[in-house]
Amino acid sequence: MIERSVVVRVHDGLHARPATQFVKLAKSFSCEVEIRCNGRGASATSAVKLMLLGVKENDEATLRAEGEDAADAVSALATFLQTPDAGDIDLTATGKPAAPAVTPACASPDRGVPASEGTAIGPAFAFFPAALDIQPCTVPPEEREAERRRYRQALAGTVQSFRDAKARPGLKRDDAAIIDALVEVAEDAEFIGSVESGIAAGQDAASAVSEAGRTIAASFEALADPYLRARAEDIRSVTRAITLTLLGRRDMTLADMPRGSVIVADEIAALDLAKATLADIGGIVCRKGAATSHVAIMARAHGIPAVLGFSADEARLKAVRTIALDGSTGAVALDPDAAEAERFRGAIAREAAERTALEAYRTVEPTTRDGRRIEIAANLGSLAEIEAAQKAGAMGVGLFRTEFLFMERRTLPGEDEQAETYTTLAQAFAPHPVVIRTLDIGGDKPVAGIDFEHEDNPFLGWRGVRMCLERPDVFKPQLRALLRASIVGNVKILLPMIADVGEVRAVRALLDECRAELDAGGQAHGAFELGVMIETPAAVFVAAEIAREVDFFSVGTNDLTQYVMAADRLNPRVAKLNRTEHPAVLAAIRMAAGAAREAGIWIGVCGEAAARPDLIPFFVENGVTELSMSAASIPRAKKCVTEI
Ligand code: PEP
Ligand code: MG
């Protein structure tokens, strides 16, 4: 039998279209193929079963095949699963007949779009804020300026309420980013412009806002890209919020929802969700929305099972008392009978058991079967994430992105503030190491206090160590802060975007100056290791030379992949080239690892790929001794190492 695990990269997972294509490909082989995911399996020859598996993008799936051409089948199907736009591949070009059309998962009356995995059952909490009934009226010319000001005031008040929601405890960085996006929508020049032209033409503010919002939302809805299409909901939620402020009314809120309830709604805005106590939400079922809706993104981040696009009758949904859902398949049961409820409870118990099985790995310090110890560390962006990382079993921090200390503020953080932050981090994980990366910022992520000129190619521009070396007024306070925090004894300093050994030498010279300045000021400082990110092809080619001057390497697979493949990491059009598993990227990693081995220094991986079960064996085999990733991936990576 041939078996292989891969991380699914197909956009939005194996929904109707890619599932059909996958089955078509599987049927072109004579062997039996099974695909397993989320603890369940299905024959690769049934599109319906495959869809019921609810395989989603970034899920780990295992292919098993038995028969004459098993190796070829597994290889072809694995490639399919790793191809982001696989659903669009036209297999009819191979001369094979087209498969019959398959009913999409959301068309069934008891099924919606699987949006966030997990099973739930609980009392329904109907969340159907009343439609806003706007009575348009004409504003006489002399009052239009005052009406415009009233709108501007309402806009400012609404934006402030968004900011207040963002400051609520329990929200994650991604949630905050979603709310920031809403602020952007509210303050969008086109939106404001069309509201103000409406008012100038005599509309009252509330009508002008609703009409402008409706028009912009409709243009989003007409787009082909599902992610962009889902953004119409943002426009609707912002429009509603501004209109309510203008009318001096408040919406119903999720704040009073009883613990463990399953929210049923027509649509839930990210903002509504941000106002709820997220840990209290048992599940979410909405009539509108898709996997790329913000509510889906937030539900996934908080582990809340969710089914969206569930097309049940609104009156029926409002009347439901108990609701059960499976966020992996999109199945929903309204007022399930005893047997059905039992089935859902059984699934909930099985999921809990699976989580517990992985939990056991939290405290494990993993070694491979031949005795190699691998450190599984966390990637952090702020001190707020320490607790989650520790809970997940992080053996230190493999990447602390200091840029978040610099972003989202009006002035640069001072040396003392930075020293305090780095010391807190080092103490929290001592004696485990904390790898703190110096400021990695560029024209794509501007920072108050640093002037970035316009660049046509910011990813190839003045970023990371390049900018820092030219701005010692920004860089040296950070280096002095790091030297001060090094007293704790476990700090390692990591330099981003290194392309030339001269940059390492220049940083060392600055560090010497910083040490002298701290001595002169009577400030204590400690010893640390200095390492570089391997994320430019140049660093790979001169890795042997750099390795002689540093204590460690950390492979930034996100950037290394984009630079080796010349494929923008943010551009979905070239996503199929932006693959860390591409032989070109693997060759680069092998080369850097070889240089590290030669020089006797350690090498880690801190890009997204560090958490990939299909790549971990490759990293370990090549001498990587540290893998750093988001906290949620840690237990699975530990399990993976122990199986090597
Ligand atoms: C990387 O490039 O892989 C990396 C870890 O850095 P960032 O994602 O912050 O660019
Ligand atoms: Mg990088």
What can you tell me about this protein's structure?
The structure is a single chain. The protein is α/β, with parallel strands linked by helices and 644 residues long. The strands form 3 sheets. It has an 8-stranded parallel beta barrel with strand order 12-13-14-15-16-17-18-19. The protein has a 7-stranded mixed beta sheet with strand order 5-9-8-7-6-10-11. The protein has a 4-stranded antiparallel beta sheet with strand order 1-4-2-3, with helices on one face. It has 4 domains: 2-102, Histidine-containing Protein, Chain: A; 119-129 and 253-355, Phosphohistidine domain (Glucose Oxidase, domain 1, 3-Layer(bba) Sandwich), CATH 3.50.30.10; 141-247, Orthogonal Bundle (Enzyme I, Chain A, domain 2); 370-642, Phosphoenolpyruvate-binding domains (TIM Barrel, Alpha-Beta Barrel), CATH 3.20.20.60. Helix 10 links the parallel strand 7 (262-265) and strand 8. The protein contains 25 helices and 19 strands. The site of magnesium ion (MG) has 5 residues, from helix 22.
